[in-house]
Amino acid sequence: MGRKLRFATTAMLVVAAGIYINNTNLLAPHRDGKPVLLAHRGMAQRFDERDLKNDTCTAARMLPPSHDYLENTLRSMRASFEAGADVVEFDVHPTTDGEFAVFHDWTLDCRTDGQGVTREQSMAKLKMLDIGYGYTADGGKTFPFRGKGIGMMPTLSEVFTAFPDKKLLINVKSRDAGEAEKLASVLNALAADRRRTIMVYGGDEPIEVIRRLTPEVRTISRAAIRSCLIRYIGYGWTGLVPAACRNAMVLVPINVAPWLWGWPDRFLNRMNGADSAVFVLGPYSGGEFSTGIDTPEFFARLPQGYSGGIWTNEIETIATISGKSKD
């Protein structure tokens, strides 16, 4: 009995040592360099994030502005790249005249002087709207951007033309597979090398279509990221990368990251080997995915010398802290 116990103990120690060696960050090659910064919505006005719901008009909860950039505009995107962003995120909606409008909200009523569902409009009509109309930081007493956003809602093709060699992340706002087919047609009209610089995320149904029709494009959906992280936590110690983590944009809440086998360098190397890009978010608190790495306190929670991706709503702040600022 003693011999069997010793054998079992030795076997367990060997297995534990193997798992440790296969996953310890101490033995993983470290990728030098500065982190990859993703500017969510470009340079944008911040708002009070407390008690947000799906129908909350965030433009009416704007914080006192520190700049005059409006999200999802060419001017905002350009400023983000100039500030140090490597990737800019923006939102799209199909229009009735065959374009894709770059605009965040499902409806026009909050931010603009228009009304109705965004995707039920023509691009010609959307171009006439004032996208700065609804912003207020004092409960409607003043509207600092009213009249300054007329004609500033861009099309997807205008974004591609303005930034022909920049990395972009497209957010599909619907769960419409038909919209994804239209977007895939637009993406497939680009050169294959260009498609590799574009990522797409959104609902499960459209992302499944994009993943199938445009294989060069990295994708992620809410279900896919949960599957990726949960499965990796479950068996990533083996070195195997789950299918949901392959050719993907892997979003990692900063409070989940320490649970990932080999975090950070071995995990980053495994994802890179699976042709995936990793971006760290702010803490996940249940229900909805988290905010970005937007404060010095959140940035300080990243590993020393971290060179993976960072998702941020405060590109100027994080670019400065990370040493990516071009000023």
Please render the helix and strand layout as text.
Blueprint: H1 2-23, E1 36-39, H2 74-83, E2 87-94, E3 100-102, H3 123-126, H4 156-162, E4 167-172, H5 177-188, H6 192-195, E5 198-202, H7 204-213, E6 218-221, H8 222-235, E7 249-253, H9 265-273, E8 277-281, H10 296-300, E9 309-312, H11 315-322
Parallel strand pairs: 1-2, 1-9, 2-4, 4-5, 5-6, 7-8, 8-9
Antiparallel strand pairs: 2-3
Helix pairs in contact: 5-7
Give an account of the 3D structure.
With 327 residues, this protein is α/β, with parallel strands linked by helices. It has a domain of 136 residues: Phosphatidylinositol (PI) phosphodiesterase (TIM Barrel), CATH 3.20.20.190. Helices cover 32% and strands 13% of the residues. The protein is built from eleven helices and nine strands. Strands 1, 2, 3, 4, 5, 6, 7, 8 and 9 form a nine-stranded mixed beta sheet that branches. α5 packs parallel to α7. The protein starts with a helix and ends in a 5-residue tail after the last helix.
CATH architectural group of the domain at 48-67 and 91-163 and 174-216: Alpha-Beta Barrel
- Run of helices and strands: HEHEEHHEHHEHEHEHEHEH
Structural class: alpha/beta
How many helices does DSSP assign? 11
Helix fraction? 25-40%
- Give the CA-CA distance, first to last residue: 71 Å
Global geometry: globular
Q: CATH superfamily of the domain at 48-67 and 91-163 and 174-216, please?
A: Phosphatidylinositol (PI) phosphodiesterase
What is the CATH class name of the domain at 48-67 and 91-163 and 174-216? Alpha Beta
Radius of gyration: 22 Å
Largest sheet: 9 strands, mixed
Uncertain spans: 14-18
Strand content: 5-15%
What is the fold-level CATH name, i.e. the topology of the domain at 48-67 and 91-163 and 174-216?
Answer: TIM Barrel
Mean pLDDT: 91
The tally of beta strands, per DSSP, is 9
GO molecular function, one term: phosphoric diester hydrolase activity
Protein name: Glycerophosphodiester phosphodiesterase
Organism: Bradyrhizobium cytisi
Pfam families: GDPD
